[in-house]
Task: structure prediction
Amino acid sequence: MSKGRLEAFSDGVLAVIITIMVLEIKVPHGHTLAALAPLCPSLVAYVLSFVYVGIYWNNHHHLLHAATNVSGAAMWANLHLLFWLSLVPVVTGWAGENFDASVPAALYGFVLLMSGVAWLLLQRALIAASGKDSPLAKAVGRDAKGTASAALYACAIALAFVHAWIAEAIYALVAAIWFIPDRRIERTLARQHAPKA
Result:
């Protein structure tokens, strides 16, 4: 499979995920701004999830741009990632309707954690297909940011049972860490394509 086909398929799935999330938000009953108040938790959950899906979309593009080959293992790893991301609308809706509840907050974090694990597996599969000396392998390196994110998700899941807002704040923190696109791949490719002096 070409990288373009894999990226196009993934883009389509991510677009559907975002569409499903927005359809979960109910139309307010009433015509004043006060009618929006009951929807605020759902809107906050939607915005956070939208940012997460956008982060994955952006970094997925960079990851595939740097990959030189796509193997069967990489295709399955990509489907594994899309599976976990496809659950984001469900946990977003549940957490949005139960903003102060521990179990929905923890399950939201579990889906984020598994999406992060799936992302790391996709990186490894693409690096294996591209070669350990490939630009992708050099750009990803040890991926301390990805490992730190997984640790924060795990902490947030446990802390959700202390209070849901603690977990939600950690999820927002991880999104903020990743909001600026991962520049490692861009820098590595720029150095590779820079004219030789």
Q: What stands out?
A: The mean pLDDT is 89. The longest helix spans residues 102-130. The two ends are 36 Å apart (CA to CA). DSSP finds nine helices and no strands in the chain.
